[in-house]
Amino acid sequence: MSYTALYRKYRPSTFDDIAGQQHIVQTLTNALAQNRLAHAYLFTGPSGNGKTSVAKLFAKAINCESKDQIICDKCSNCLDTKNNIHPDVVEIDAASNNGVDEIRSLIEKVKYSPLKGKYKIYIIDEVHMLSLGAFNALLKTLEEPPAHVVFILATTEPHKVIPTIISRCQRYDFTRVKESDIFDNIVKVLNGENIDYDKKAIQLISNLADGGVRNSLSILEQSVAYSPELVTVEDVRRIYGIVTKEEKLELLDNIFKLKMKETLALLDKISNQGNDLERFNIELVNTLKETVIYSYSKSTELLQNLSKEEVESILNVVNSSQLLQMIDILMDIDAAKKNISDLVSYMELGFIKMISIVENKTKFSEEISPQKDVTIAKPTKNTNYKKEVVDKINIEEEFKKHLTPTSEETKVKKLDLDSNDSDMDKNDDKEDIDVIGVHKTEPQRDIVLNDETLLSLLTFADKEKRISIQTDWENIVNYCNDVEVAKYAYKLCKSSILAIGDNYVVAVVEHNHLATDLNDDSNQIGLTKFLKEKLNEELRVFAITTEKSQEIIEKFKTRAANNTLPDKIEVEIVEETKELIVDSLISKAESVFGKDGFTIEE
């Protein structure tokens, strides 16, 4: 006996065998059970998703002789339909019978009663291939067909079917089948063929099928031909030129770490292995897309190809803004692939641009890094403020319940408010410093967040103000859809308040790159304006990571217990002056071109 392709051999026999499309199966079975049959149906959707199979099953069910089942698959009508020999089920390929004469011939036969079943059923596949004259010839019959006739039209391109035909049919849109349903169908086929398989191989085939059941069985058939005894993921990758996830992550890691030589060498290796570079490029897009989605949602349920650890390792190196720029570069490569002869060279240029994005941001971030050490000025000796501050703060409760939800519960020694200032004097003597402050004529980067700065900001924080502003801060997320302020709302919506003073706020974020971005001089004026407009508070934003917040809280407790908290730092809001704008532009130019790479003309 000749060999039968898997997609033909395992064509569904009942509605229960259909992979996916449950909304369509349920509707059709209910119509059959209630005897509410329409005279014409239009099945649309991608190829290989079950349109023709469902049409044949529906034809079988319409003429089934069983009163207890939708499809018994035992009566003569069911068996004849299954074997394609039923006289009342006519299947027409519109691609090869698309003329007016063929449709007129069909119309002449429609008027005759069915020979065996209750209905005469015409299945017209690829109906969009009919000519305009053929459509018009079919129109009258489709509008007023004999009572014993049912038309089932199928097409992958419904926009090519004239509206007057569509309006006379019940339309059913077949969707791409979920990977889980394709996976189950492949396993059923392999079990029927007694072939062993690697689970990862089946997952890869399900992904390659792109939502098409027939595609998945064709890929499976080729894989079985390559390795008859056992279907493995390595075999599938070798056949279809698929780059491994490890290689994709390695290439991205090289880009993020500015390893130009290693990046281009790995791309050359992937190309020489005969891998599908177009698919590889799209998979890189999907990898970065998943990472961006996770950075905003923090939901592991949305991760399909990456683990939480893999995503977070990427976010520890680059931020979502950089990732979106990289996605744009990769999408440009995909759009240009049809118009270029050397895809490898084009991808090399794209990767160089991606490295440039990381490199430029890294250079600029180093100048405003929140962890850079700075010396703090020794002000005029005045330590009376310490007792006042401690009187206002219940240290243990403040930091355990309010400042950060992830801080550990640590008991704090009772403060000795009557202790002398000798310890503080000794500590002050170790500092050789100038006063830190941001004046309206100076750049904001003059304040750098080292531990002493943070301790001072926490020492003079206002508990009542933090409690009163907490709800408004949590509602910042509501402004993310406001085009005018979305940029700043996105930056702040994932943060929480550690401390807030008269004109500053210390915010806690999860990742270091987010803290760096918030502390960036180029964002400070916009953030201050946003908070003034939406929260009615004029605040300078200082950002640190969750890990850093826990560390600084412990230091605060220790220093408070020893009565060695630092003196107050005056923070002033920077106004947008001409001098500040020019200074910011010069700083950015230096980060891109170097100090000697440009000249300034008056």
Break the fold down into its secondary structure elements and pairings.
Elements: H1 6-9, H2 22-33, E1 40-44, H3 51-63, H4 76-82, E2 89-93, H5 100-110, E3 120-125, H6 132-143, E4 149-155, H7 163-166, E5 170-173, H8 179-193, E6 196-197, H9 199-208, H10 213-226, E7 230-231, H11 233-240, H12 245-256, H13 260-272, H14 277-297, H15 308-315, H16 320-336, H17 343-367, H18 385-392, H19 395-403, H20 422-429, H21 451-459, H22 463-474, H23 486-492, E8 496-500, E9 504-509, H24 512-519, H25 521-535, E10 540-545, H26 546-561, H27 578-593
Parallel strand pairs: 1-4, 1-5, 2-3, 3-4, 6-7, 9-10
Antiparallel strand pairs: 8-9
